[in-house]
Specification:
It is built from eleven helices and 13 strands. The protein has 304 residues and is α/β, with parallel strands linked by helices. The strands form two sheets. It has a nine-stranded mixed beta sheet, sandwiched between helices. Helix 7 packs across helix 8 and helix 9 runs antiparallel to helix 10. The radius of gyration is 18 Å and the shape is globular. The structure holds alpha-D-ribofuranose.
C-alpha cells in the first residue's frame, strides 16, 4: 500500500509583518518587528504532512541564493525529502505578509524561482509520484506545468488534491482530473463568480463545484470553519476556538493534515475535522512552518 505524499509547488522566503492597521497611500508605517519564515504554499503543505509523520517529497525550484539555502535546509529539518528541489539562477520566491491584529492577512508573493520549474522537473520526480498515495498541488507555479503535473500524477496512480490558490484560471480538463479541490472563501468566489460570506453559501457553492468537476470539495472559511462536500454530501465543520496570534500558513497546515489523515484511512469529512485541529494549533504561534504541529502535539492538545 502506498503511504507517501508528493507536493509539487512553491517555496517562498516569507517576511511577515504584524501591522496595527493598513498604511494609507503615501504613509510610512512603523512596525515593531518582522518575522522571517520558510513559506510558500507548497513547502508549507509538505512540511505539515511530514511533521505529522508522512514520508513527503517536495518538488520545486529555489534560487542559488541564501534564501534558497535557508529554504532547502528548513524543509529538510522538518523531514521532507528535498532531492527534487532544483537550484536555479532566478531569485528564490518571496512572500510578504501583512498581518493585522484582527487576524486579517494581506499578502503578496514574488514568483521568482517558482516559475522556473519545468516539465523535466516533474518527469524527474516520476518515481516519487509512483510511490505516493496523494499528490498535492497549488497555483504558485506556472499553470501549464501544473496541468502537466496533474496529468502525470493521475497516470502514476496518485489521488490528486489541488489547492486552487491563489485563484487563477486552470483548464476545466485539469480540474476534472482532481479528486479533491480545496479553496478558501476568496478563491471560491473566483471560481463560482459569486461572493461566499456564510457557511450556507459555501455549502451551496461546494455542491455546485463538486457536480461541475466530479471532485470532492473543501471550502475553508477562516475563523468560521470549513465546508466539505464528500460524495455529494455537504458538512459544515466549525473552527476550534483559540487565541490566534497569526494565521500565515493555517490553510496549508489544514491541507497537509488532510493529506496525512486520508493516508491514515479517514474519510474526507473526518480528515477535515482532524485538519481543523492542526490549523487551530498553527494559528497560535507566529510563522507558518515553525507553528505547525506534530502528531503528538495534536493528540496532546485535542485529547478527545
Ligand atoms: O499560504 C501561505 C503562504 O502563501 C505563505 O507562506 C506565502 O509564501 C504564500 O505562498
Amino acid at each position: 500500500m502506498r503511504s507517501k505524499i508528493t507536493v509539487i509547488g512553491s517555496l517562498n522566503y516569507d517576511v511577515i509583518l504584524k501591522i496595527p492597521r493598513l498604511p494609507q497611500c503615501g504613509e510610512t508605517l512603523p512596525v515593531k518587528s518582522a518575522v522571517f519564515s520558510a513559506g510558500g504554499k507548497g513547502a508549507n503543505q509538505a512540511v505539515q504532512a511530514s511533521k505529522l509523520g508522512v514520508e513527503t517529497y517536495m518538488v520545486g525550484c529555489v534560487g542559488e541564493d541564501v534564501q534558497g539555502d535557508y529554504l532547502v535546509k528548513t524543509t529538510e529539518k522538518y523531514g521532507v525529502n528535498t532531492k527534487y528541489i532544483r537550484r536555479c539562477s532566478e531569485s528564490t520566491g518571496m512572500g510578504v505578509v501583512n498581518a493585522l491584529e484582527s487576524g486579517e492577512v494581506y499578502a503578496c508573493i514574488v514568483r521568482g524561482a517558482n516559475f522556473a520549474i519545468t516539465r523535466a522537473d516533474v518527469d524527474a520526480a516520476e518515481e516519487a509520484l509512483k510511490e505516493s498515495e496523494t499528490a498535492i498541488f497549488q497555483l504558485e507555479i506556472p499553470g501549464e506545468i501544473n496541468e502537466y503535473a496533474i496529468d502525470k500524477a493521475k497516470k502514476c496512480g496518485c489521488r490528486v488534491l489541488l489547492n486552487a490558490a491563489p485563484a487563477a484560471e486552470i483548464s476545466e480538463e485539469s480540474l476534472k482530473k482532481c479528486d479533491i479541490l480545496v479553496v478558501n472563501e476568496v478563491e471560491a468566489a473566483f471560481y463560482l463568480k459569486e461572493k461566499i460570506e456564510t457557511s450556507e453559501q459555501a455549502e451551496k457553492g461546494a455542491l455546485y463545484l463538486s457536480e461541475k468537476y466530479g471532485a470532492d470539495i473543501i471550502i475553508t472559511l477562516g475563523s468560521l470553519g470549513s465546508v466539505v462536500c464528500e460524495d455529494g454530501k455537504t458538512t459544515f465543520i466549525p473552527s476550534k476556538k483559540v487565541n490566534a496570534v497569526e494565521s500565515t500558513g493555517a490553510g496549508d497546515s489544514f491541507i497537509g493534515a488532510v493529506g496525512y489523515a486520508l493516508i491514515e484511512g479517514m474519510s474526507l469529512t473526518e480528515a477535515c475535522k482532524f485538519a481543523t485541529c492542526c490549523s487551530a494549533i498553527t494559528v497560535c504561534k507566529p510563522g507558518g512552518q515553525p507553528a505547525m504541529p506534530t502528531l503528538d502535539e495534536v493528540k496532546e492538545t485535542y485529547k478527545d
